[in-house]
Design a protein that fits this description.
With about 250 residues, the chain is of the alpha/beta class. The chain has 7 helices and 12 strands.
Length: about 250
């Protein structure tokens, strides 16, 4: 592995009064993309939310380290400025704020970025939505493309994607996948940007190659390996087969 961008060590997280994550550990190197798999309710979204520092996700043990700097106690805004961004599975509607206004604000904060509002919106076919309120009345495909558009504006060093293909048709998956490749710096030469993708179907991996996979069950990582091999085994044996998967690396 290259120098780690993200190191999660023995992380335990409580939501409300319920413990969701139990001593989860993973490390993502610079330029790497990892995939997080697992059945519904296993804690995948909770892990992304905890790394992003979202309110309501209380860390009760362990640590989160970004480029060698512990961020476990940081607020969401601090983590964003430090280079982390999250694409939500179901982004909340925000009345009174247009997509264009948000994008202009993000690009202003990232002076010297890699495009203009209109050029970046064109990448994800959203120019016609720029004057609409954020996430209000958008289709499933438009919502996902809006999330990708915001990450294109932010140019994060670590991108977290929560089920980017969920509720999206094949045409939109292609657009989302190409945007993710751009966000992650997957050009002729791989950048040092990193990503963590939660996916159920694995369809997004047709467009975004991943370096490693992790299977999360009942709040703990039970298996690691190559994403495509993990998917194949899960199709054959279900997630329970991951507990004794012969492809699993030592955890």
């Amino acid at each position: 592995m290259t120098d780690p961008i993200l190191e999660v060590s023995n992380l335990s997280v409580v939501v409300g009064r319920k413990k969701i994550l139990n001593e989860v550990s993973l490390s993502i190197g610079a330029g790497e993309v990892h995939v997080l798999l697992g059945p519904n309710g296993s804690g995948k979204t909770t892990l992304l939310m905890a790394v992003m520092g979202m309110p309501g996700y209380r860390v009760t043990g362990g640590s989160i380290v970004l480029r060698g700097r512990e961020i476990t106690g940081m607020g969401t805004d601090e983590r964003s400025r430090a280079g982390i961004a999250l694409a939500f599975q179901k982004p909340p509607p925000v009345r009174g704020v247009t997509l264009k206004a948000l994008a202009e604000s993000l690009l202003e904060a990232k002076a010297g970025g890699n495009g203009t509002v209109r050029s970046l919106a064109e990448k994800v076919r959203l120019r016609s939505c720029l004057d609409r309120e954020l996430n209000v009345g958008l289709s499933g495909g438009e919502l996902k493309r809006s999330e990708m558009f915001q990450l294109l504006c932010l140019e994060p060093e670590l991108s977290l994607f929560d089920e980017p293909e969920s509720g999206v048709d094949l045409d939109n998956i292609s657009v989302v996948g190409e945007a993710m490749r751009s966000i992650l710096g997957m050009g002729k030469e791989r950048s040092r940007k990193a990503g963590l993708i939660v996916t159920h179907t694995g369809h997004i991996l047709r467009y975004v190659p991943a370096d490693a996979g992790h299977v999360l069950m009942e709040g703990s990582i039970v298996c690691r390996g190559h994403p495509q091999i993990l998917f194949e085994d899960i199709r054959k044996h279900g997630f329970e087969g991951c507990r004794s998967c012969r492809h699993c690396r030592s955890i």
